[in-house]
Amino acid sequence: MGNTSNDMGSNVTAVAVAELPGLNTLGISLARIDFAPRGINPPHTHPRATEILIVIEGRLLAGFVTSNPENRLITKVLVKGDVFVFPQGLIHFQKNLGKGHAIAIAGLSSQNPGVITIANAMFGSNPDIVGDVLEKAFQVDIKVVHQIQSKF
């Protein structure tokens, strides 16, 4: 089991071409996601892969947001044995709804799917994205932007 004693309460163990060179040219990879009670796999995207998630243990809320202009949230509560698909490039997440640990396995349609965690990318870039850009994009006060950036 992965170490879930972090701010997110989750741990992703990737098995892509970097970890297993034998995947080179095969177009597939895997990830094991361990969740503490109420843990999340925060909103993120895979720019080069569709993901299929299989719940091995626990009860998860899984969801993704469709692309502009609808930005429709699609969610489903999953239990052991359930499967959910996240289309390539769309922002998605999972949350453990249970009081115990949860485990899921993700299959991805690329040997190198990439991962962009939304909050990290927006507020933790190096160097920082200019504050007034985020202020306007998120429609919040610049102080809120700086407060969030300080956490990253």
Automatic annotation (TrEMBL):
Compartments in which it is found: Secreted, Extracellular space, Apoplast
List ligand-binding residues for Mn(2+): H44, H46, E51, H92
Q: Which UniProt keywords apply?
A: Apoplast, Disulfide bond, Manganese, Metal-binding, Secreted
Cupin type-1 domain sequence ranges: 10-146
Instruction: Enumerate the Pfam families for this protein.
Output: Cupin_1
Binding of oxalate: at which residues? N41, H46, E51
List, alphabetically, the GO terms of the cellular component aspect: apoplast
User: Per its record, what are the GO molecular function terms?
Assistant: manganese ion binding
Listed PANTHER family = GERMIN-LIKE PROTEIN SUBFAMILY 3 MEMBER 3
| Recorded family membership | Belongs to the germin family.
Please state what the protein is called: Germin-like protein
Q: Which organism is it from?
A: Ambrosia artemisiifolia (Common ragweed)
